[in-house]
Amino acid sequence: MRALALSLALLLSGAALAVSPDELLDDPVLEQRARDISAGLRCLVCQNQSIDDSDADLAKDLRVLVRERLVAGDSDEAVRQYLVDRYGEYVLLNPRLNEHTLLLWIAAPLLLGVGLIVLVIVGRRPAPVPQTELSAEERTALDALERHTSD
User: Fold this and answer.
1) End-to-end distance of the chain based on CA atoms, in angstroms?
2) CA distance 69 to 78
3) Which of 59, 83, 93, 111 has the smallest number of CB atoms closer than 10 Å to its CB?
4) pLDDT level of residue 15 (50, 70, 90 thresholds)
5) Rounded to whole angstroms, how far apart are CA atoms 123 and 115?
6) Banded pLDDT at 71 (limits 50, 70, 90)
7) Where does residue 109 fall: left (phi above 0), alpha (psi -120 to 50 degrees), or beta otherwise?
């Protein structure tokens, strides 16, 4: 009965997404922890969805696995680490900062900085002036202007 009430509350709040009622835990605190963990895990089939959002069978298996580990007493980080050990760091929607993801984390800001520097350099450079010869009439007018400003 509690699971039914919890699933109804989640459905009404719009947070139920792909989680089916048979997956829900009776303990609302554990269920919320499971939802928080699932929201940060990538569906390995859909790739750009969390397992909470995905209807794929593997996503369901992962959601059930998360709940089983929480019921067994694992901490949130222990559950995440268990899944990383089993499926690799790709299972995390937000990769951790370490030596093999450092380039991933610094590439975007670095490219943005380089782009801004290039824009500043190009923007400061004067536009090229076409080298054309003045006509006799233009040369006379220019000479008159130069004499007038020097007086």
Assistant:
1) 100
2) 9
3) 111
4) very low
5) 12
6) very high
7) alpha
